[in-house]
Specification:
208 residues; alpha+beta; Glutaredoxin; Glutathione S-transferase Yfyf (Class Pi), Chain A, domain 2; four-stranded mixed sheet; 57% helix; binds glutathione
Length: 208
């Protein structure tokens, strides 16, 4: 059995939704921040972490999504076949893991981005992070123009985008109002029964 370690509402929600969409056999386990079990699997202390029965551990959300697609080749969540189709999937996974997700780091953890720990300095870091989030949401919004999902057909990129879109909705003073295509993607995902099931599970799950 595959185990996905997560914390409620983090980016681990993306692979969690992907596992549900794929109909995979898995269990999802809460990994409290700083817990010995989590640090033994991932010295960085971050989730998501995926572990297989034989003890093999995989970290990094993009790698986990790729691995799940290889394990579940009939999921239909892996973008178009061929070099360009696969490159498009890679492009958007890289955008999400490398551009949009990191834009939130200064918003959630401003203390890590300034040696000046005053409230004023940290508020400025948050403001700069919000600017980065907005820039990346504009890019995502443009990609979604005329499409229901990021690549056209639904893919793991949509599952992974969901936690970030939720963060943006919660953190931006005007929510997603300026990003109508992103808002439409949010509404589509929020209405999905598998997404709702995953959100409920995460909200109710307790650490072992
Ligand atoms: N590059 C990593 C980032 C993972 C990450 O930052 N996870 C956050 C939750 S969204 C976390 O667990 N952070 C804990 C920490 O940085 O201390 C990935 O894509 O998996």
């Amino acid at each position: 059995m595959t185990t996905l370690y997560f914390r409620n509402g983090t980016c681990a929600l993306g692979p969690h939704i992907a596992l549900e969409w794929m109909g995979a056999s898995y269990e999802a386990v809460v990994a409290p921040a700083g817990s010995a079990e989590l640090l033994a699997m991932n010295a960085s202390g971050a989730v998501p972490v995926l572990k297989e029965d034989d003890g093999w551990v995989l970290t990094q959300a993009g790698a986990i999504l790729r691995y799940l697609l290889i394990k579940h080749p009939d999921s239909g969540l892996g973008g178009e076949d061929g070099a360009r189709g696969q490159a498009e999937l890679e492009r958007w996974i890289c955008f999400l893991t490398g551009d949009l997700h990191p834009a939130f780091f200064p918003v959630f953890m401003p203390d890590r981005y300034t040696t000046d720990q005053s409230d004023d300095a940290k508020a400025k870091v948050v403001e700069a992070g919000i600017g980065l989030v907005r820039k990346n949401l504009r890019l995502l919004d443009a990609q979604l123009e005329g499409k229901e999902w990021i690549l056209g057909p639904r893919s793991v990129a949509d599952a992974y985008a969901f936690p970030m879109i939720r963060w943006a909705r919660a953190k931006l003073p005007d929510g997603l109002a300026a990003y109508t295509n992103v808002l439409a993607l949010y509404d589509r995902l929020a209405a999905d029964p598998a997404v709702q099931r995953t959100l409920k599970f995460q909200a109710e799950a307790k650490a072992p």
